């Protein structure tokens, strides 16, 4: 809206948060709290005499050597990157009212990358040797052929959505058919309209 609307109109637009900003708020609040809670719980287990036998059987964890309680992370310690199909999301994330707390400099979404930029980054990292997917391949086949990525560090998607670990089915994988713009939203609207208005199932 910033590109086509007069700045005087901006304060009068809908105050609803776009999905990208909702995700940023959740990452820097709910998931951050869960991460801090898990770190504290692991530290407590490593210090508690009730779990001394467990420490003998397992390999030492990185937090087991800590004598002091771990310092909880704050929203400023998290850098949230959002990948979006549209350049307008960059402008949206820069709006001054999309901050974690009013008056702070901590944004809900720190960086927005477009899918084109992600592809350019992948090509640059691979020396322009990114293989093209076959014409009839599904998204699941392409990701399965790529193999599991090393997820160094803790994966917090199991808090709300299920874990992403190698060998498990990918719970966040959603195939979008060809030419389905806006992440499949246009296709969804078209199919629902055809069903509701003309009783045609596509």
From TrEMBL:
It comes from Alexandrium catenella. Belongs to the NARF family. SUPFAM superfamilies: Fe-only hydrogenase. The lineage of its organism: Eukaryota, Sar, Alveolata, Dinophyceae, Gonyaulacales. This is Iron hydrogenase large subunit C-terminal domain-containing protein. It comes from the Eukaryota. Residues 75-126 form the Iron hydrogenase large subunit C-terminal domain. InterPro entries: Cytosolic_Fe-S_CAF, Fe_hydrogenase, Fe_hydrogenase_lsu_C.
């Amino acid at each position: 809206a910033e590109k086509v609307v007069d700045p005087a109109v901006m304060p009068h637009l809908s105050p609803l948060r776009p999905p990208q900003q909702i995700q940023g708020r959740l990452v820097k609040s709910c998931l951050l709290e869960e991460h801090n809670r898990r770190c504290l719980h692991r530290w407590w287990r490593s210090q508690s005499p009730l779990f001394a036998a467990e420490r003998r059987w397992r390999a030492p964890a990185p937090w087991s050597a800590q004598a002091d309680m771990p310092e909880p992370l704050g929203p400023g310690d998290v850098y949230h990157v959002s990948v979006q199909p549209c350049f307008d999301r960059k402008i949206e994330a820069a709006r001054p009212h999309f901050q974690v707390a009013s008056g702070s400099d901590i944004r809900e979404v720190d960086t927005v990358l477009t899918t084109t930029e992600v592809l350019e980054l992948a090509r640059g990292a691979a020396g322009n040797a990114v293989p093209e997917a076959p014409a009839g391949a599904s998204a699941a086949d392409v990701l399965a052929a790529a193999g599991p990525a090393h997820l160094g560090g803790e994966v917090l998607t199991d808090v709300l959505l299920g874990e992403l670990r190698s060998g498990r089915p990918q719970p966040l994988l959603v195939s979008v058919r060809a030419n389905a713009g806006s992440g499949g939203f246009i296709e969804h609207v078209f199919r629902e309209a055809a069903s509701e208005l003309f009783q045609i199932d596509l």
